[in-house]
Design goal:
The protein has helices spanning 46-53, 121-124, 127-142, 158-169, 182-191, 207-217, 233-241, 284-288, 297-309, and strands at 5-11, 20-26, 34-43, 67-75, 87-91, 104-108, 112-114, 149-153, 174-179, 199-201, 223-228, 242-250, 276-279. By secondary structure, the protein is α/β, with parallel strands linked by helices. The longest helix is centred in the middle third of the chain and has 16 residues, at 127-142. The radius of gyration is 21 Å and the shape is globular.
């Protein structure tokens, strides 16, 4: 970009939002196979504040952020599927010039996808981490089928708000969701279409009461699939809630002190049911794999975009945060 300097929100020290500084940062260099994006909107994910707070140590100073939407500024050698001016969204999992909190970013083409028609840049900036995680969990790992009963622990969160429409598109007969406060309950009913009597308010019940409520809602059979988007006690609930041959998908890692044995048939609520457990770490291939391993991201992004464009899944109105520009 001619050696000019862009502006970025730079994290200089670990801590709260006060650690950010809006300052000059070197413009990205576009390498072969990369796409340079002029950023129009971003979204904020839990990994961002964990990095900012130092829970996930990173070299400082740094520019955080994983989700962007914007227009292609230029492309590197060997990139044929994008051209300047294309409206795109991207997930910054792999090698990148900097994070999302900036005016520009350059990243390899497998992490970039055309923006779905009908979505604003603000909405499209929410598709990366949350949307792709939900797609991988529901479609690739759990493979939700028509007629199944599903439990979603954390249905009102970012990933849950993508997962529930995907589960509905898969033909699930019944969805049970957990929620904390009234706002979450209202979101699940009004925006996600979950029946009010299928929402379990976990803050008002103890673990045994929650288990009993799941049993009541499934006539004692347990659910076919359980999604753990919360962790801790809700992860344990998922293991208890599944029936025979049930599937559990979790996106939440646990601390070393998390004490829960699923391997012994005499004490495990899951092993004796011959169930399967899947863990979704969407960025694992980007962090630990070679460029040849990155090809899995593109079909996930394209399929998610296609489901939205064709209105096979209807998403709730996106929370418009992290906006850098009004241009759409």
């Amino acid at each position: 970009m001619g050696g000019r300097i862009m502006k970025a929100m730079v994290t200089e020290t670990f801590g709260g939002p006060e650690s950010f500084r809006w300052q000059e940062w070197p413009d990205p260099e576009v390498k072969p196979g990369e796409v340079l994006i002029r950023i129009q909107a971003i979204s904020v994910n839990p990994v961002d504040y964990k990095m900012r707070a130092g829970h996930l140590p990173i070299p400082l100073p740094d520019v955080l952020g994983r989700d962007v939407a914007g227009r292609v500024e230029t492309v590197g050698e060997g990139v044929a599927e994008f051209k300047p001016g294309d409206a795109v969204f991207a997930v910054l999992f792999g090698p990148r010039s900097n994070g999302a909190y900036a005016q520009y970013v350059s990243t390899p083409a497998p992490f970039v996808c055309r923006k779905p028609k009908g979505l604003s840049f603000k909405q499209s900036a929410c598709l990366g981490v949350a949307g792709m995680t939900a797609y991988d969990a529901v479609v690739n790992k759990a493979k939700v089928q028509s007629g199944e009963t599903v439990l979603v622990a954390g249905g009102a969160g970012g990933v849950g708000s993508f997962a529930i429409p995907l589960i509905q598109n898969g033909g699930a007969a019944s969805i049970i969701a957990t929620a904390g406060g009234q706002e979450s309950c209202d979101h699940l009913v009004n925006a996600m279409g979950i029946a009010g009597d299928h929402i379990i308010r976990y803050r008002e019940l103890n673990v045994e009461q929650i288990k009993n409520r799941v049993r009541e809602l499934t006539d004692g059979r347990g659910v076919s699939v359980a999604f753990d988007f919360v962790g801790g006690e809700m992860k344990k609930l998922c293991f208890d809630a599944t029936g025979f041959d049930g599937r559990i998908v979790s996106i939440v890692e646990e601390p070393p002190e998390f004490d829960f044995n699923i391997w012994r048939a005499d004490i495990s609520p899951f092993f004796a049911k011959s169930g399967t457990y899947h863990f979704v770490a969407l960025s694992a291939r980007a962090r630990n794999g070679a460029p040849g391993d990155w090809s899995v991201y593109r079909p996930v992004m394209r399929n998610l975009a296609s489901l939205i464009e064709t209105k096979k899944i209807i998403l709730p109105k996106a929370t418009e945060i992290g906006e850098l520009s009004e241009e759409t």
